[in-house]
Write a structure and sequence with these properties.
This protein has about 180 residues and is an all-alpha fold. The protein has one domain. It is built from eight helices and no strands. Helix 5 packs antiparallel against helix 6. The chain binds protoporphyrin IX containing FE (2 copies).
């Protein structure tokens, strides 16, 4: 009875070990956003061409319909998932895994916030351009695509530097299995 009680206690209370990882839900949403973002960038040419055809008042093909529907709804989903992640982040961010100075931790926090903000601007500008035909929003959408790419580049480079350097910054987004 004491043994099973002890096991139950271990199961229910997060150990110091598990506290160093993002939750399974956070990790799944992180990777889902990456997949959706890759598709947004991969489909940017057909999306722009379809919009150019709309501007010239030409008939849209079925493929154009699929691309525009996918791009707009996927963009809205990305924004919704980021809002959800922001809310989850309010509840759980693993404690510092590496030997970061307070200054470095602050910079990383700002960088993460930058990612949330720029993805948000990307989705909002796209929606304003598409649904309300705000021309300036179209310019913003194109500008932020580069800003987001730059931020993601820094993010990936930063994440990769943590592989194999002894801290667990990379692993906390991969889950405990990545330690085996
Ligand atoms: C975070 C999510 C999004 C990403 C990463 C994204 C990415 C992109 C990229 C890379 C382009 C090509 C830009 C260019 O070179 O001109 C583009 C075009 C476009 N996107 Fe998005 N997008 C997102 C969300 C949305 C949303 C939510 C909408 C509308 C509801 C939207 C509407 C458009 C439109 C209308 C274009 C064509 C712009 C034009 O050429 O006139 N996007 N998007
Ligand atoms: C292959 C690509 C990527 C890798 C290897 C990667 C890796 C990581 C790692 C290791 C962390 C944990 C860092 C820490 O806690 O200090 C993290 C966190 C984070 N990543 Fe990525 N990432 C990638 C792509 C992206 C993309 C495309 C976004 C864009 C939205 C993104 C947004 C975030 C955010 C916002 C966090 C902070 C945790 C959170 O609030 O959920 N990541 N990433």
């Amino acid at each position: 009875m004491r043994v099973s009680g002890c096991l139950l206690f271990q199961f229910m209370s997060p150990t110091k070990e598990s506290a160093n990882f993002y939750t399974l839900l956070q990790r799944r949403l992180h990777w889902l956003v990456i997949i959706l973002l890759i598709m947004q960038y991969a489909l940017q040419e057909p999306m722009s061409e379809a919009m150019a055809r709309v501007g010239r008042q030409e008939n849209l093909s079925f493929l154009d319909f699929l691309v525009t529907t996918w791009h707009t709804w996927s963009g809205i989903c990305i924004a919704a998932i980021m809002i959800w992640r922001w809310q989850l982040r309010g509840r759980h961010v693993p404690p510092g895994a590496g030997k970061l100075s307070p200054m470095q931790s602050k910079l990383i926090q700002l960088h993460h916030m930058g990612l949330y903000l720029v993805v948000g601007v990307m989705a909002l500008s796209g929606a304003l351009h598409y649904y309300l035909d705000v021309a300036l929003a179209g310019v913003w959408h194109e500008f932020t695509k580069w800003l987001l790419l730059g931020l993601i580049g820094v993010h990936i480079a930063g994440a990769l530097t943590h592989i194999g350097n002894g801290d667990r910054v990379f692993q906390r987004m991969m889950g405990k299995d990545s330690l085996r």
